Fold this sequence. Notes:
The protein is mainly β. It has helices spanning 13-16, 163-168, and strands at residues 2-5, 24-27, 33-36, 47-51, 62-65, 73-77, 84-86, 95-97, 104-107, 117-119, 126-129, 133-135, 143-144, 148-151, 157-161, 172-174, 183-186. Strand 1, helix 1 and strand 2 (24-27) form a beta-alpha-beta unit. The longest helix has 6 residues, at 163-168. The termini are far apart.
Amino acid sequence: DELVFDGTANTTHGNMAGITKIETFKAETDATVAFTLASENAGDGETLTLTAAALTTTTNTATFDAQNDTDGNIVIIGGAGDDTITGSASDNGDSITSGTGADTLKFLTGKLDSSDTINGGDGTDILHILTDDTIEASTFTNISNVETLTSASAQHLVATLGSAASTAGVRTVTLADTGGNDSVTVDATYSGALTV
Length: 196
């Protein structure tokens, strides 16, 4: 089943509460759209797809926030604009294809790992960690076409970059913690230029 949104400017998680057993939330028109999932939208192990594939104009953007989900299989497809996508808190791993814009992909502490499959597509895309976190070298195993790793302001980031990070396309690490608790380890398997 599909839940189709036509020209939706904003949809909060409160508005999404009580919606279950729908497999796809779909933006049908080329217009800016936002979905914020409620916890019950995807049941335990159920697959829920959020798609903005209809957004073909670069000035129209998708904002998809799946952080309220804790147990679903979340699939997110972005559009042509500069999308903002927040991954889920599920241990099942997200599948995110963010599209052709300069997209920002956000994750809570411990919720970005090797079970997540991410393709940033074209554009200069950002992995943005929302809270204090440690990013292991293996985190980047199934990530591609993402150019920058950073954290939210005043959140510390401890990251190890190896061959998977270089293959993923990470070329910039931006440290945003004003307290000076950040750490970046670049192991011998990383290749290419890196700006920190």
